[in-house]
Amino acid sequence: MCVSAQNMTSSPYSRFAYGDLGDDAPNTYRGMGGVGIGMRTNKAINPLQPASYTGMDSLTFMFDLAGSVMWTTFADATGRRNRANGNLEYITLQVPLWRRYIAASAGVMPYTSVGYNFALADSIGSDYHYTTSYAGEGGITEVYGGLSFNLLDWFAVGANVYYMFGEVSNLRALTFSEADMTGVAQYGLLKVSSVRTRVGAQFFHNFNDRNAFTIGAIWEPKLKLNGDYTLVETTWLDTVGTTLSEMHVPMQWGVGASYTWQQRLTVAFDYTWQGWGDVKTYAGQSLRSRSVYAVGAEYRHNPLGRNYVDRMCWRLGAKMADPYQLNVNGKEYKVSMGIGFPLRNTATVFNATVEYGHRGVLLKEDYLKLTINAAINETWFFKRKL
Predict the structure, then answer these.
(1) Which residue has the higher pLDDT, 297 or 120?
(2) Which pTM was predicted?
(3) Domain residues for 186?
(4) Rounded to whole angstroms, how far apart are CA atoms 51 and 141?
(5) Element (H, E) at 375
(6) What is the domain count for the chain?
């Protein structure tokens, strides 16, 4: 088998369903295993939890830009292959609208990514030799806008609206080495243009300005996607085309909690459930419902210290998830480590996160991913004194 890189992923598993799912957590939290439902801070934009936007400083403007590179190893009974690919991860921004009571956020992120190109060679006895080729690329992108409201000093709610768009193409072809045999091909093209929503809530409490506790929840309704899927099959007899349009994204909900001690140590835990087993997808593919567990921690020795190392952030995390594609066996595992590099005399932080992940049984996929982002946090909204 041979594999080549395309798009934001090079995984053969991305040919199933909508492709590889994206990660809504900012890079700041990816170093903590991808938590975020119970995270509330003025140093990161957190699209995973729309209620968190009002946690920002009411005088600042925030902007976050992230890019990544990933090295992947695929191993099966035929051997091992290595591939590398990289791309822009996301762009987000956040602004206060009214003091600390209302804030808004917007950005662009991947919802799914597809990118694969591989072939399998076999024979029928010693008479006929054939090759089955698979290739695909594309993905679904989401542009979101969100609002957060502090209804009480200890309770916030928020909502995101996502516009989802993109194309995914999949090609499967069977070719023979013998001239007297005719191959067949199947080409599918998915086009999506749809809107979905997410709501969130957070309860939070600060203890003497140094210890803090937050618990949060998110929920999304099941949604029928607007779009269509065209399938064209070419055989030695004819070319047949069909168009399907019944496809969905699932209802999902999640809960999370975090605790910060002495402004130094933060620990957090998330659980998310996605009802993929209850939805229809294009081409009649069966899916399975998905549980995602994430846990992480962040430590700063002294956030107000003069020593630069004392103000650096050190993060560790882990995640375990069920694959939503029925064709992928075994659970997905990920461990991560991150470092935050604060700038002097500003709240801006540069973050670097390294993630190691594993999935698959017959075809094992192991990857190492480096993500770097600039979480820009600048004071804009204040009146200068003359």
Answers:
(1) 297
(2) 0.92
(3) 2-379
(4) 22
(5) strand 364-379
(6) 1
